[in-house]
Amino acid sequence: MELAQYLYSQITAGALDRDQGRRYLQEVLPTDIAIVGMSCEYTGAPDLFAFEEMLRSGRNGFRPFPQERRKYFPRDHRYLIDASRFYGHDPEELFTRMCDQQGAYLDGVDQFEPGFFDIPEHEATYIDPMHRLVLKHLHLAIEHSGMTREEIFGPRTAIYVGKDRSIAGNYQSEIENDSDLVNPGTWEGILASRLNYLYDLQGGSLVVDTACSSSLVAIHIARKMLRDNEIDIALVGGVALGLAPRQGEVFGDYASVETKRDYLKVFDQASSGTIFGEGVGFVMLRRLPDALERGDKVYSVVRATGINSDGKSNGLTAPNPKAQTTLIKRRMPRPASLRRPSTTSTRTGPAPSSATRSRSAG
Fold first, then answer.
1. 184 pLDDT exceeds 70?
2. pTM of structure
3. Where residue 59 sits, what CATH number does that domain have?
4. How many domains does the chain have?
5. Which of the residues 57, 107, 182, 219 has an alpha carbon 20 to 30 A from that of 313?
């Protein structure tokens, strides 16, 4: 890497021909992928800078269901009526209990500037808030990279979006089906394609659903496409947005997965489940030599990725530490300073994932 940095300094100083220098760089640089742009929005952290501050301060964003969103949830919703009958509670009382639980919720999900994307206002009414969030943060990730729309235009830019249906608000069922704009506005299959259409990006788009690992698998696909030189730029990330408050201790379709607590105990034997939260995050990826040649700010590099299946474990949603250890050792031959483990935080989830980290590090 030191030789690559020296060559890059010679190119930028004009002491080495750009074309010749690039050929040298391609020979000495590792086949890493550079992260050159980012954007995110999580509960209590509306942008990248707030999220960094949250991480540094050790805070979390759990809170009750936002007041401004409660008015949008109909009290005669079948979801609420069926639960109130089952538990013998008044629907309003049940709804209040749900809203008062701590959860991970976004603010302003009803806010959108359609004119910025040249979308007619009447059409924007039918666009799922989840689609709007993806549009917003894809654009902000491009902006954060310092690249212009003209630079990403064309067949060499792709978009890959991870979308786990474990948390999903069915926007289509909550609006009037009185327009042919309803289906294109709410169809998850084009979640990654809307910006392609608006910005004329032709490098391909995919929506990936592999449950908890959806966004990581999307990054794996993007890395392979970049390594194989099929694309030059990848915009990759994930989104989660629900329209209703979490079920938690009140009731739940995910009783075996979601905790009754208002907090998590990740990598802890005391873990009792997860909390399905809301958020959106995207990164812009480029091949490291290309990023260095253009003079991009490189925030981090992706050295290796890999996917596998746990196979037979002690439960359908339980990780298999042996399979995960094998994958990590096979795909990460070089030392890594950070690994993002995937865990469900269920009663069986954290312990095997923790064991995997220890074994792979050892």
1. yes
2. 0.83
3. 3.40.47.10
4. 2
5. 219
